[in-house]
Each structure stands twice: as structure tokens, then as C-alpha cells.
Design a protein that fits this description.
heterodimer; A: alpha/beta; Rossmann fold; 7-stranded mixed sheet; two-stranded antiparallel ribbon; 14 strands; about 45% helix; B: alpha/beta; Immunoglobulin-like; 3 domains; 6-stranded mixed sheet; 19 strands
Chain lengths: ~400, ~450
């Protein structure tokens, strides 16, 4: 029988308008949240966390506090990030101090050598080992300087600071060379500040880079040391070498310069295509269909489970008994005996039918106990053969 | 809304102007162009909501057969709908093609035909129709899912009906036999006819012969014999166990399906033989019941009742079965219990209520045997298989023990593999009828 159904149809997919209406609250909430975030960022000056010790860094590791105090004192501070810019920023050789802080080791030996010639006063802040051997080969690292240190030298800046805090690195002279000043001694014949003569001025190696940060500048005499050391000349160049210096002396080009202009838009396009492809494949063609599935239990599972139990516990006799009882029942039926026939009766009938002695049949059907699995297999085969013989003898061919 | 692969391809083609013009502006221009085209396409696409859906659907199908389901979609909108349609049939409805293309101009109606070949019994549904309507450029589509429920009832396969002709022939042989072949106490007197050679002389009705004999005629007296026919208007009550044990599968068929097959064959036979068949499917409550139907109506109602019933994973409450049988018939009846007699433990409930049933009725317990178990007893080539054979023998012994117990309580037991059980039960019915035991 075929029927024509005209079901009460209802569109399940919501319209764009109803989606908009239903999600109005969340839209509003999202807008409020975005506005709040924007407002907060505009109203609170951002903590600029550039590189450590950057001149306009207002975070804990920045150095804006020191730089602005120096500017208030009339020192013109210019922050640079490349050697070229530093070179351009040097107005006059003698009245310029350059502070260089290069923890990542962007500069190579040539650039360091050039740097020493740019100005009369060079302050090298916590140089790496290779930088130290380039700038001041007569110095070597002498471990860490820790705790509060006292000047113990005649350098004006150090004397005015008297004590500095918060530690850093220490250096010591290797050979017989003399330093101009060695201040803030540490335990292991090291000094946190060493001033050396250079070709046309002086070179100061300072190990306490942390003392210049916004976080620690106010401790002990940190500020006094920094201001007097860096503010002794009217010009200060705050040079933090960056990636721009890498290979700038040589002829290598950066990856960004090497790539053609279209690579960036092409990547953006690829991203858009991937998103579009995701939408294309991800849009489902209607909801999933639900169907209750039946349980699947095989009826023979209990049989299999019992077989594994027999085998796991080597229940040979029990297994053989089951086989024997099956055989006895079938043999009894083949010999035309009733269900209630006794075992002796069955053995007698089967022995007569197969021409074996009752003793042998009894051995097979009752007496023998298998001691190994091999014996069990052999006995089960014997049972099958016996059953076949009985069948052949009793059934008319 | 949905995008097409064409949209993605078009967007990807933007790489050509981007590389050729070597600028980021080309990218922005291209993306804007694509978006513009997409918006245009979307605005020109026909609305998938403006449709009227109806279905032409057969209400019933026998398991294993195929039917044609038609989905009629009328476009009542202003624009042409071109795109794809999905008629969301359940997986086991066996739909040939779930998704089909459609071209539907405004104001017209089209039929989408699907061939359904269900592979599971019960109610198979299609809840929703999804239409995806592309614009003329084929870039973007509007999509809507519309509730348009349709259902088809998948009836039990009744494969055992192939046994029906031979059993009916044997039933007819019972009819009109003389008492030579069947001399049961319950057979009923049917008619008188002339003696032919071979009839039992004991069935000669001398009184009728005397009445018939015409003394004026010269020829010898023609003898008259009584004939008998099997008793009619007996009651057959079939109780199918839909509990836990009926969920187990034998030969990829749950026991309950075999029970359904057996019940259908028996019912077809019994209703032709003039008996009344009542059916109950029971676990802890009556899941289905057919009473007071006969003939073709009986078969239709039986399959309809059986179709949606799946076994529940609970134990059957046998103690309620005598009351159930009593509610279905007050006369003596042939009560067929289609269940499983696997282990003495699980059949304790059944064995406990058998005496109550056998006191008044003739009870037959029909149970499926697993042919895999019988096969397992014979393969004994290695250690694992011998243990398996032992376990299978043990399972058969359990069945034999339960069968013996049931027989002792006065019930008859019919067992067989899923293919053999329905004809075996039918044969037992014919044998009981021939013996006049009903």
C-alpha cells in the first residue's frame, strides 16, 4: 500500500534574522568587552617592554627612568639600535659617551673595533666573553658580583655612589697591564667596574647591568654611579645592538629583503583559501540522523568463554568428561537404547557393535584419566573414531 | 549558507594577479571581487525555504525487499532552485542515493525517487529534508533543513514461507482421511462415502449402509464408510520471549527473529487449518499482542505487531505467563513458548511455571540451537579446539538436560537451527493435529 503524505513541514534551519535576534545579547556583551579593553589600553599608558634596558622601556627591565633623569640634567640622549645609526648620531668625538649593551652578541669583532673609535668614552655593559676579549683583551671574567659593594677607588662617579647594590658580573686584569680605575671589588680579585685607557679616551666595563634597570636604579648608589658615569659628557648614545647589525658589515641580505614582494600577500591569500576550504568541507548537509542500534551478542559467546576457562585452568578431566558424555549419549541413541539406559548396558551394546572388548570400551569411555594435553587430544580423537565405528556398524549402509 | 568548491578555487586563482602585479593591493582587490560575486550569487539563489514537500511512500515493506520512495518538492518561491537535496533516511533504511541534484524552476514540482532496501526490521524514518540552493554562478548556496517526516514499517522477512506449500499439502492430506491412517480419539466425524478398496473395514458404518441399500436393485449392497477430518476451531497461543536471551545472535540472526519466523509459519498453517491463533510478545510486560484475528488479516496484524519489537535486555518474568495465557484463552489450547533453553540456571523461571501450563494446555517449547556449537563438537584437531569441543558438548548436554526436565513436566520440546526451527515447529503442529491431541 502506498500513501501520499503531506507532512506538516517546518523549516528547522534558523533564518539569519532569528539568529541575530537570539544572539543579540552576546553581540552586545562582546561589544562591551571589546570597548572595555580598548578603553583600558588607551587610558593606561602601556608598559613598553622592548629589549632589556631599552631607553624607552617603562617595564621593570627597561631603563627609561635613568634616561629621563639624564635628559633632565641636560644630557642629550639618543637611542640607537644599529652601528650605522650610532655612527650617524655621534656629533663630536670627544664630547660623546656611548653605552653599549649587547647580551645577544649581535656585533662581530670588526664592528666592536669600529665602535671603540667612534667616541672618546665607551661604556660596555656586561659584555659577553667574546665581546670582552674584543673590547678589553686584558680583562677576563671573574665570576659574579653579588650583594652590596663599596667603591674603593678614586673614580669620581664611583666615589659619589659609594655603594652599589644588586650585583652583576665581575672582571679582573689578566696580565701586568694597569687599569685606570678598578672599583667595587668582589671577593675573587674581581671588580664590578673597570676603567681602561683606550687609544683616545677611556673604556669602562661595567658588570652591573641590572643596576641600570627601572626596577633597581633607586637602590643604594646605583643611580649616582649611572648618572655620573654616563652624564659626564653632554652627549650620550644609548646603543643596543639589534638584528640590523647582523651581517651589516658584510654583504649578506636579510630573508625579508631577499623574498619578492608578493610572498606576503600570497601567504595571506593561502590562509584565506584554507579557511574557505574549511567552510566548504565543514558545512554539514543537514543534521545527523539518529538511529537506535541493536545490541549484538553472539549466542556462542558463553561456549567460547567456558572453553577458554577449561584451557586456562587445564581442566582436562572435566573437558574429557563432557566429550565422553556426549559420545555416550549419541552411542546410546545409535544402539537403540533408551535415554535411561545404564552405562554398562551402553558399553556392552557398543562393544558388541564395534567388535571391541567391553574392557577397552570402558577404558575409553570411563577409566583413563588424561595427564597431559596431548593425551587429551588423543583421547578425544579416539572418541571420535569410536563413535564413527558405532555409527558405521549400526546404521544400514 | 554554504560555500562551494568553485568559490575556493576562484579565491585561490587570486594568486595569479597577486604574483603578476606583485603587490598587496591586488590581493585586497581580488578578495573584494570574489566577495562581491559571492554576494551577487547569494542574492540570486532561489530560497530553499519556499518549497512544499510531500512524499509518496509505501507504508510497509518486507525485510530484504526494495521499495521506491518519492519525494515531491514544489517550488513556491520566485527564483529557480538549483542544487542538491538530501532526504535524511536512517542508515538502515538502505537508501540508494541520499543526496541528489535538483533543478526546480519557480512554480514547478519535481519528484526525487529513492530506492529503499531496508536491512533492519522495525520503523525506519526520514525526519528531515535538506535543500542546498546554489546561485547561477555556483559559488555560494543557501541551505535550509525542513522537517518533513516520513516513515516506513519494515516487516519481518518471513523467509520460512517457502515451507508453507508443502506443509499445507500435508495438512490437506489429513483432511478426509479414513480412520485407517489416523485413528485418534479427538478426530471428528466428517462425512460418509462409498467404500473403496483399501479402506479399513472397521470404519464401515453398517447403519448407514443399511439405509443406503436398495433391495430392489439387483446389484450387491454398496458399503458406506465414515470419514474423519482433523478437528477444527482449536486454539493456538504463541508466547514469544522478548527478554535478554532473545537478543543473542545465532547465525547473524537474533533469536527473536527466528521466533518470529516460527510463529509466522505456524500461524499461517494453523489459520488455514481452521484454528484460532493468538500471539503475545512478552518480557516483563506485553510488548505486542494479536488476538481474535484470522485469515489474511491475522498475518497482516502479526507482522505489523512484530515489526518494531526488539528484545529488551531484561530477564523475562515467567511467573506472569500463566496469567497471560489465561487472559487469552479459557479453553484448552496449544501453547507455544518461543524462548531459549540454554542453561539450567537461566530456564529455572520457565521450568517453574511449566506445570501450571501443562495441567490445562498442551505446551510446546521451541528453542533455537546454535549450529556453530554442533560444528564445534566435531572439530578437535588441536588442544584449543578440543577444549572448545568439550565446552560445546557441555552446552549441548545442558540443553539436553533442560529439554528432559521440560519433557518431564509434560511439555514438548522442539529445537533446531535458525533455518530448521520454523519447519520443525510446523511439523510438530501437524503431527499433534494428526494425532488428534489438540
Amino acid at each position: 500500500m502506498t500513501v501520499t503524505l503531506t507532512p506538516d513541514q517546518a523549516v528547522v534551519t534558523p533564518t539569519l534574522r532569528s539568529v541575530a535576534r537570539r544572539s543579540r545579547f552576546w553581540f552586545a556583551a562582546a561589544i562591551v568587552v571589546v570597548l572595555a579593553i580598548v578603553g583600558y589600553t588607551i587610558l593606561t599608558p602601556p608598559a613598553v617592554d622592548g629589549a632589556p634596558l631599552s631607553a624607552d622601556g617603562t617595564g621593570e627591565t627597561g631603563a627609561k627612568a635613568l634616561v629621563s633623569v639624564l635628559r633632565e640634567h641636560g644630557v642629550s640622549v639618543s637611542a640607537t639600535t644599529s652601528l650605522t645609526a650610532t655612527n650617524n648620531a655621534v656629533a663630536s668625538h670627544d664630547s660623546t659617551t656611548i653605552l653599549v649593551y649587547d647580551p645577544s652578541g649581535y656585533l662581530d669583532a670588526d664592528q666592536r673595533a669600529r665602535l671603540t673609535t667612534l667616541a672618546a668614552h665607551l661604556v660596555v655593559l656586561s659584555p659577553t666573553k667574546s665581546a670582552l676579549s674584543d673590547f678589553a683583551p686584558q680583562l677576563e671574567p671573574a665570576g659574579a658580583a653579588s650583594g652590596t659593594m663599596t667603591a674603593h677607588c678614586r673614580l669620581g662617579a664611583a666615589l659619589q655612589a659609594n655603594t652599589i647594590a644588586d650585583g652583576g658580573h665581575a672582571y679582573r686584569l689578566t696580565g701586568s697591564d694597569r687599569a685606570l680605575h678598578s672599583c667595587f671589588p668582589t671577593g675573587a680579585r674581581g671588580f664590578a667596574l673597570v676603567q681602561l685607557p683606550s687609544t683616545d679616551g677611556d673604556l669602562t666595563v661595567v658588570g652591573t647591568d641590572k643596576a641600570l634597570t627601572n626596577e633597581f636604579i633607586a637602590d643604594r648608589g646605583n643611580a649616582a654611579l649611572a648618572i655620573n658615569l654616563l652624564g659626564s659628557t653632554p652627549n650620550l648614545i644609548w646603543y643596543l645592538p639589534s638584528i640590523e647589525d647582523v651581517g651589516a658589515g658584510g654583504h649578506t641580505q636579510s630573508l625579508a629583503n631577499a623574498a619578492p614582494h608578493w610572498i606576503e600577500p600570497l601567504l595571506i591569500l593561502a590562509l584565506l583559501v584554507v579557511i574557505a576550504a574549511g567552510v566548504w568541507r565543514g558545512r554539514r548537509f543537514g543534521p545527523l540522523v539518529v538511529e537506535r542500534l541493536p545490541v549484538i551478542v553472539r549466542a556462542s559467546e558463553t561456549m567460547e568463554g567456558r572453553a577458554r576457562l577449561y584451557q586456562a585452568s587445564s581442566a582436562r578431566l572435566r573437558a574429557l568428561d563432557a566429550l565422553r558424555m556426549g559420545t555416550i549419549q549419541r552411542v546410546a541413541a545409535l544402539c537403540g537404547l533408551s535415554r535411561r539406559a545404564g552405562l554398562d548396558e551402553i558399553i556392552g551394546a557398543a562393544a558388541t557393535a564395534t567388535g571391541r572388548t567391553p574392557g577397552v570400551v570402558r577404558e575409553l569411555l570411563v577409566a583413563i584419566e588424561p595427564r597431559t594435553d596431548n593425551e587429551l587430544v588423543r583421547l578425544s580423537d579416539d572418541l571420535l573414531v569410536f563413535e564413527r565405528d558405532v555409527r558405521a556398524a549400526t546404521l544400514p549402509s | 549558507m554554504a560555500l562551494s568548491g568553485r568559490f575556493v578555487l576562484l579565491l585561490g586563482l587570486g594568486s595569479v594577479p597577486v604574483i603578476a602585479l606583485n603587490s598587496g593591493l591586488a590581493l585586497i582587490a581580488w578578495v573584494l571581487l570574489v566577495l562581491l560575486l559571492a554576494a551577487l550569487d547569494l542574492s540570486l539563489a532561489g530560497s530553499p525555504r519556499a518549497v512544499r514537500i510531500s512524499r509518496i511512500l509505501p507504508t510497509r515493506v518486507r525485510l530484504g525487499e526494495s521499495v521506491r520512495s518519492e519525494l515531491l518538492i514544489a517550488n513556491v518561491g520566485r527564483r529557480t532552485i538549483r542544487g542538491r537535496v538530501r532526504d535524511a533516511w536512517q542508515p538502515s533504511a538502505g537508501a540508494s542515493a541520499n543526496r541528489q541534484s535538483i533543478y526546480l524552476p519557480a512554480g514547478e514540482r519535481r519528484a526525487i525517487a529513492t530506492i529503499l532496501t531496508p536491512f533492519r526490521r522495525g520503523e525506519r524514518r526520514s525526519g528531515q529534508v535538506t535543500i542546498r540552493s546554489f546561485g547561477p554562478l555556483g559559488l555560494v548556496a543557501r541551505q535550509a533543513t525542513i522537517d518533513a517526516p516520513g516513515a516506513i514499517r519494515v516487516l519481518p522477512a518471513f523467509n520460512s514461507r517457502r515451507h508453507l506449500p508443502s506443509r499445507l499439502a500435508r495438512l490437506r492430506e489429513l483432511d478426509g482421511r479414513t480412520s485407517v491412517q489416523i485413528r485418534g480419539q479427538g478426530t471428528e466425524f466428517d462425512s460418509l462415502r462409498e467404500y473403496v478398496r483399501g479402506d479399513d473395514v472397521r470404519s464401515i458404518d453398517w447403519r448407514a449402509t443399511a439405509r443406503r441399500t436398495d433391495p430392489s436393485a439387483g446389484s450387491g449392497p454398496s458399503l458406506v464408510v465414515r470419514t474423519w477430518r482433523p478437528e477444527r476451531d482449536r486454539r493456538v497461543v504463541i508466547v514469544i520471549d522478548s527478554g535478554r536471551t532473545s537478543a543473542a545472535r545465532i547465525d547473524r540472526e537474533p533469536r527473536i527473529d527466528t521466533a518470529f519466523e516460527s510463529a509466522l509459519l505456524l500461524s499461517a498453517l494453523a489459520t488455514r487449518a481452521g484454528d484460532h491463533v493468538d500471539l503475545a510478545i512478552f518480557d516483563r510486560r506485553v510488548r505486542g499482542r494479536v488476538q481474535g484475528a484470522s485469515g489474511a488479516d491475522l498475518m497482516a496484524r502479526l507482522v505489523d505487531t512484530m515489526a518494531p519489537i526488539d528484545p529488551e535486555l531484561i530477564d523475562t518474568d515467567w511467573s506472569a505467563v500463566p496469567g497471560l495465557v489465561r487472559s487469552m484463552t479459557s479453553q484448552r489450547a496449544l501453547v507455544v513458548l518461543a524462548t531459549s533453553i540454554d542453561s539450567p540456571g537461566a530456564t529455572r523461571g520457565l521450568l517453574a511455571v511449566l506445570p501450571q501450563l501443562t495441567r490445562k494446555h498442551l505446551v510446546v517449547v521451541a528453542s533455537v540451537l546454535d549450529p556453530a556449537v554442533i560444528d564445534a563438537t566435531l572439530s578437535r584437531s588441536d588442544r584449543t579446539e578440543v577444549y572448545r569441543a568439550a565446552s560445546a558438548e557441555r552446552a549441548l548436554l545442558d540443553v539436553a538436560r533442560v529439554s528432559a526436565a521440560a519433557r518431564q513436566l509434560g511439555a514438548e520440546v522442539v529445537t533446531g537451527s535458525p533455518e530448521d526451527l520454523p519447519p520443525a515447529l510446523a511439523d510438530r503442529y501437524i503431527a499433534l493435529k494428526a494425532a488428534g491431541l489438540l
